[in-house]
Amino acid sequence: MEVAVRVLPEGVEPVGSIFDDLGTGGTVIEDPALSDSYRDAPADTQALDFSTEPQAWPQVKAYLPVDDRLEERLQRLRQALADLPLREKPELSTRELPETDWATAWQAYYKPVEVGRKLVVKPSWEDYQGSGERLIIELDPGMAFGSGTHATTVMCMELLEEYLRPGDRVIDVGTGSGILAVTAAKLGAGSVRAVDNDPVAVRVALENAELNGVTDKVEVLESDLLAMLAQGAAPADLLAANIIADVIIKLAADAARFLVPGGRFIASGIIKDRDKDVRTAINKAGFTVREIKRDGEWVAVLSVREA
Ligand SMILES: C[S@@+](CC[C@H](N)C(=O)[O-])C[C@H]1O[C@@H](n2cnc3c(N)ncnc32)[C@H](O)[C@@H]1O
């Protein structure tokens, strides 16, 4: 059930706290004043629907399961709203929504994506009828980043296709769904060490390694960047990191330490305004930039560790 409370601006936070206490697990705030401030803004706000004149007060919405606790929760909500010391009483409305499996609704829009010359990313629940020439990366990204549809992932996969050599020892930093780790294994890497600081990503990456039958090659660890990969452990021939510019800058010196001379460093997640800063850090860490890929706002950089 959608529960909406229209309230004076100063009541938005208190209403949010009331919803928190009810255990709604999050709220939506629709603030006409905020929408008005976007009204004259250009291009990227065009998706907002201004077709109906907004009422003056903001609205706080939350969602409750329709179960035997609903009536008691609504009663507590009404009481808490009545107790708020506001100049005007908030207005409460409720609306029952059709049952949808929100957690999996996105799956309907996730289809196989061909990447580069030799790869295809296939959702685990979809069929793919290709010519049989592409390597299939089976994927269920769940709550982890890395479905193969983001420009940064695609550019990293294309660079892997181009620069990975059979038998390479690979490190994938910020593995997310494990998409780059699995791609590396399928392209012929000898071993892949994948790390992420998000335990959900670690679990999902392992599941995807299993789905693709590459657990003999892919190891997944929870780690802040390279912290859990002991210094002095086997060096790598190729290191990929699709995170964000600031993290790549922080990682560059360690990446150089982990790579053999001539080792390749694929860095992405770089927004184009930060491209120069990242390349400066990469050069300073002892790499020579060999290739730069761009797609819209995003940049990926392939560099090689100098001898
Ligand atoms: C943009 S996603 C990339 C996922 C996947 N590698 C891809 O190319 O699609 C970045 C991932 O880096 C992880 N990450 C961010 N900061 C990190 C850190 N300090 N150490 C390890 N992983 C990190 C995030 O949890 C996220 O899963």
From TrEMBL:
Reaction(s) catalysed by this chain's protein: L-lysyl-[protein] + 3 S-adenosyl-L-methionine = N(6),N(6),N(6)-trimethyl-L-lysyl-[protein] + 3 S-adenosyl-L-homocysteine + 3 H(+)
GO MF annotation list: protein-lysine N-methyltransferase activity
Keywords for this protein: Cytoplasm, Methyltransferase, Ribonucleoprotein, Ribosomal protein, S-adenosyl-L-methionine, Transferase
Binding sites annotated in the UniProt record for S-adenosyl-L-methionine: T153, G174, D196, N242
Localization terms from the record: Cytoplasm
GO biological process: methylation
Main enzyme class: transferase
GO CC list: cytoplasm; ribosome
Domain of life of the source: Bacteria
Pfam families: PrmA (PF06325)
EC numbers: 2.1.1.-
Summary of the function given for this chain in its UniProt record: Methylates ribosomal protein L11.
Similarity remark: Belongs to the methyltransferase superfamily. PrmA family.
Protein name as catalogued: Ribosomal protein L11 methyltransferase
Phylogenetic lineage: Bacteria, Bacillati, Bacillota, Clostridia, Eubacteriales
